[in-house]
Amino acid sequence: MTTLLEVKDLFLEFKTSQGILKALNGITFDVNSGEVFGLVGETGCGKSVTGLSILRLLPRSASIRRGEVIFNGVDLLKISRDEIESVRGSKIAMIFQDPSSSLNPVFTIGSQIERVVRQHMSVTRKEAAEQTKEVLSAVGLPDVKRIMDSYPHELSGGMQQRVMIAMALSCKPLLLIADEPTTSLDVTIQAQILKLLRNLQKNFNVSVILITHNLGVIAQTCDHLAVLYGGRVAESGPTETIFDQAQHPYTNGLMNAIPRPGGRGRKMATIPGTVPSNPGALTGCAFAKRCKFAFDRCVVEPPPLYRVDENHHVACFLVENRSK
Amino acid sequence: MRTIPTLSVESELKSTRTFSHVMGVIIRDPLSLASTIVILLFILIAIFANQIAPYPAEGTGKTNVDNAMLAPSPGHILGADRLGRDMLSRVIMGARPALIVPFGVVLFAILIGAPLGAIAGYKGGWVDNVIMRTTDLFLAFPSLLLAMAIAFALGRGLQNAAIALIVSWWPWYTRLARGVTLSLKERYFVEAARSIGVRDSVIIIRHILPNIISPILVQATIDLGTVILSMGGLAFLGLGTQPPGADWGLMVSEGRSYILNQWWISSFAGLAIFIVVLAFNLLGDTLRDIFDPRQYK
Amino acid sequence: MTTQLVEIQSISKHFRLPGGWISGKPRFVSALEDVSMEIAVGEVFGLVGESGCGKTTLGRIILHLIEPTSGKVLFDGIDLTTQKGASLRSLRKQLQVVFQNPLSSLSPRLKVEQIVAEPLVTHHTLPRNQMQKRVIELLEQVGLGKQHLDRFPHEMSGGQCQRVAVARALALDPKLIILDEPTSSLDVSVQAQIINLLEDLKNLHGLTYLFISHDLNIVQHISDRIGVMYLGKLVELGTSENIFDKPLHPYTKALFGAIPLAVVDRRRELSILEGNVPSPVNPPSGCRFHTRCHLVQDICKNDPPEFRQLEPGRFVACHFVSKSDL
Asked: Which chain A residues are Cβ-neighbours of C261 within 8 angstroms?
């Protein structure tokens, strides 16, 4: 199990008309090769922005203040524009929530994928078409020839997302970043896509960073995960550990707030208050205002990511004594 | 009776479409700021024309034949026209019809066109058909012919030229309003109002019209420039302000035979038109950037 | 005076698609086909299904925002489909709705006070000077307060907007509130707050809810009875416990098996339902689910199965499910 990607202490700001928005305030996590890694959190926690930062797909109003994103030994934040462009698509690929807006409506599926292939690999048109066919059938699309001649609007949402995954895989990347890939899909279609993503590592040797707000999806699909809150990692570790013995009050709150079978008639556990919109502007722990265990120190200093176990990190003063 | 606990969370979201936000964006963009200042400046000139113009009487037509064709010189920094009237005063006095009348034209065009478009878009069916076909009819009419017809019927003059322009312009707002209404109609808040039992007419007034203001405002700002040009064109052709009145278009027309030698007679009026129209266009572009991307979430 | 607040009798809804003039054959979207069900006073009825199943259309038909192609909707014994004008408007007071996207269900240019007061203004239920007091009372019931009166929707969070929508729905003391995906666009922690609020309000005011959602976990939590829809038809109906403990229809089983649960169970594989939802323009013949069903036989392609009652309150529409499966 080698480390494929290391994100270290990433700080990111946006310049908005209402001032500086500190979106990421020290994101740290590792992704190993051959795994599905989950980034989970609610709106505004910074999970999508983190995904975009890895590939430096940020708008001009964003600036990375500090941190490193080390991929295969190279800090992606420090390389040149040309170098990062050659990484995009070929070494690290990304897919997004709404596949219909990621696909160009006026070109056929086949031509769009072929174009990507020819952009990153020097192959003939015939070879590109062959590779396109291969990758489309590898993602489980039936009747590949017909799909290649179809336009995006002729396909259903689930098929479009498969096409996106195929496009992402066409240049054989090492890492796939999937930002809420199934959020706009029906449950039964979501199940198909999640199975596909889970098998990607086996069949394609691609690692996946799965960004979502849905804890069920994470539990089902991911090997490791990081829970984000207020632009920071609240807790990270192997999926079983986090679901069975979460240590951070936010993680616990989130787990309790999910409706579960058998919970009928009982009140749902809630986390009072709402997510802060400019978490970086707060001193101390971003969750302190909503945390029922908060004490004085929590409002003053942000807790560091303590290591409580082999791979399990928690950013909370409550675990300070147990950390190694 | 069980009480439900109150939230004490303060929202930190701020508006992105309030007046202060818009002003903030404008102030920060040099071109928009310059345009706004220019427009305000000209508005002030129009309001205080009588006080600012060095020779107000000449500005409105009193001749001074001794100064005929006087080149720019001390005392008459923009020169004088063929009848000796001070150009600076003429340009200043001309700011009134140039700015106030187009505002009126656009305003009336919106007052007629926008509600019609909203009704057409919301009601659909035969109402939509009738309104839009009427709109098509008016759009097909060349505005120049219309202006000439009105001048023929009602006489030449600034007021009638304005009427002609209102009649040519309102259909554009109907189209615009209808398009925005069609997309608004599908939004949940309109369905919510219907489910409450709000009458159609009230829905249009309370829910639709306030939400179509933004795109109309953007269009109106840009249209102001075009209307100014059109009025200038009409005046140039003799269909607008009649001599001896001060009107930039008329002034350009009056000086056209002397363009080569006594260039100052046409040029300053022409320059004034150019600057004001450019300012409205630039401001309109900025407003569009502020409003459009967030319009149809 | 019946105990069934809402009775839906054989409702069908076909939308006509534009075009078809040249071939002479107009095309229709069969959004709902012969749907019948009842909602009892004081219950929470959950309606689930994926996109294209018609649950949202059914909600709109009950609200009389659109007209059914055939069939009747009885509200408190009165046939809604025949009501018009003033009597319809008066009936509307008892039927309110809360929509999915809270921000877009509130008029962007109106303040909270005007939004919540709109139902009161429309039906002239109170003199002007008492309206603000009532609005504040409603806001307090949903966990907001008078400091929110002057806010615009875009100045509030999703959860707060949804609370305003609920306050508005309560304004006229309705009997039935239709909740169309009320928590789908909210964060998990806010979702729980809103669900608790909805339950409290229901108990406080004796409300009846029709809860439409694609999120099975939430529906199961809040509903007393659940109806499962697929491609315009009701395929299964029963109490919340029954449906969850023992789903009978193959589609219901597939649906529940496909929900990712927030529990790590490596042995549980998501049940994969192959294929896509067929287009409602040309729905499959016979049983609409037959194209994706692993039990499919010839009879399924030819005969639409009857929505049969297996025991009181438990209905399934499948040729291969019988009383012995209970």
From this structure: 216, 219-220, 260
- Sorted by where each begins, the domain ranges of chain C are 4-94+174-325, 108-173
Question: Of C189, C244, C254, which is closest to A257 when you measure between CB atoms?
Answer: C189
User: Is residue B23 domain-resident?
Assistant: no
Cβ contact A213–C187 (<8 Å): yes
Give the domain CATH number at B101: 1.10.3720.10
Cα distances (angstroms) measured from residue A290 to each of A276, B12, C256: 10, 15, 33
B239-280, pLDDT tens digit by residue? 888 877 888 888 888 888 888 887 888 888 888 888 998 998
The two three-digit tokens of residue B53, written as one number: 């113009």
Q: Where are the alpha helices (DSSP H) in C142-271?
A: 158-170, 188-205, 216-222, 240-245, 250-257
Q: Report in angstroms the alpha-carbon separations of A237 from A30, A198, A213, A247, B227.
A: 10, 18, 17, 11, 66
Query: In chain C, which residues have their Cβ closer than 8 Å to the Cβ of B1?
Result: 204
| CATH class label, C108-173 | mainly alpha
Name the residue range of residue B259's domain: 32-51+77-295
Give the one of C108, C118, C123 whose C-beta lies nearest to B193's C-beta. C118
Q: Among the CATH numbers 3.30.1300.10, 3.40.50.970, 3.40.50.300, 3.90.45.10, which is that of C4-94+174-325?
A: 3.40.50.300
**B88: which 2 tokens?**
């600076």
Task: Name the interface residues of A facing C (CB cutoff 8 Å).
Answer: 42-43, 156, 158-159, 186-192, 194-195, 213-221, 239-240, 243-244, 253-255, 257-261, 263-264, 267-272, 274-275
pLDDT at residue C224, as a whole number: 93
Indicate the helix (H) or strand (E) that contains C314.
strand C314-316
Strands C44-48 and C4-16: unpaired
Residues of C in contact with A190 (CB under 8 A): 258, 260
Of B296, B98, B159, the residue nearest B215 (C-alpha):
B296
Per DSSP, the residues of A208-273 read: EEEEES-HHHHHHH-SEEEEEETTEEEEEEEHHHHHHS--SHHHHHHHHHS--TT-TTSPPP---S
**Global pTM value:** 0.84
Output DSSP code: residue C261: P
Report the 10 Å Cβ neighbour count for B22. Answer: 17
Distance of CA A41 to the CA centre of its chain: 10
- Six-digit token string for A166: 């195929």
CA–CA dist C112, C119 (Å, integer):
13
Q: Which has the closest alpha carbon to B121: B17, B215, B197? A: B215
Confidence of residue C20 (pLDDT cuts 50, 70, 90): low
* Model pLDDT for residues A213-262, shown as the tens digit of each residue: 999 999 989 999 999 998 999 999 999 999 998 999 999 998 888 887 76
ipTM value of the model? 0.85
As for how many domains chain B has, the answer is: 1
CB nearest C264 (choices: A192, A219, A261): A219
> Does residue B72 fall inside a structural domain?
no
Q: How far is CA A132 from the centre of its chain?
A: 25
What CATH number labels A3-91+173-322?
A: 3.40.50.300
* B contact chains, 3+ CB pairs < 8 A: A, C
- What are the extents of the domains in chain A? 3-91+173-322, 101-172
